[in-house]
Write a structure and sequence with these properties.
Shape: globular
Strand content: 25-35%
Number of helices: 2
Low-confidence stretches: none
Helix content: 10-25%
């Protein structure tokens, strides 16, 4: 669902994919190869939201702000399921974990990883390549080269998803039985723990 608001019409690049069950409202700019998942609410009603190329905003995320604010997700920002970004700037190639909350005027430095369920209070500045966990948040160490490579690989999987959705996603009726020739999905990405084994 794409909505104009108060004279602002969202701008969505043709290579991006916004799921039909996501909501994008008002002063929103969405770049190339961006994936917006079902249930996401991207609300540019009181300020501007810029989602740069190759980002993903997954299922049930909220991106919003106080009036007069710009929210910026820089290239390859990866916003995990259920996360909330409220009036913050998320740096290039950052991972925000599932159900994390990033509050107003927070600056998350490039190549940082924010752990699932973390809470970052308003006005905090997270240096580049920080590994952040907890509520309230703590910076526990620097992101290693191996960890950053794993994050980047995961984001590249999401960069392919918009094209795959545009090519193959369609509403359908469910099958009532599992067909004998049902294909097996290939495994092309490992969790962090699997990668380290």
């Amino acid at each position: 669902m794409i909505y104009a608001f108060n004279g602002f019409v969202p701008v969505v690049h043709e290579t991006a994919f916004v799921h039909p069950q996501a909501t994008v409202t008002g002063n929103v700019i969405i770049g190339r190869q961006v994936y917006i998942g079902p249930g996401a609410a991207i609300r540019g009603d009181w300020g501007q939201i810029i989602i740069e190329d190759n980002c993903n905003v997954q299922e049930n995320c909220t991106v919003h702000m106080f009036p007069g604010t710009t929210v910026l997700l820089q290239q390859m920002a990866h916003i995990g399921h259920g996360a909330i970004i409220h009036g913050a700037t998320i740096g290039r190639n950052v991972l925000v974990g599932m159900n994390a909350v990033i509050m107003d005027r927070v600056q998350v430095g490039d190549e940082s990883i924010i752990g699932a369920l973390s809470f970052i209070r308003a006005d905090e500045v997270i240096p580049p390549r920080s590994l952040v966990v907890g509520n309230p948040h703590k910076i526990i160490r620097q992101v290693s080269d191996d960890m950053l490579a794993w994050k980047t690989e995961g984001t590249r999987v999401y960069m392919q998803l918009p094209a795959d959705c545009q090519a193959t996603l369609q509403a359908c009726e469910p099958l009532r039985e599992i067909p004998a020739d049902r294909p097996v999905q290939e495994t092309h990405y490992q969790t962090w723990n699997e990668r380290r084994q």
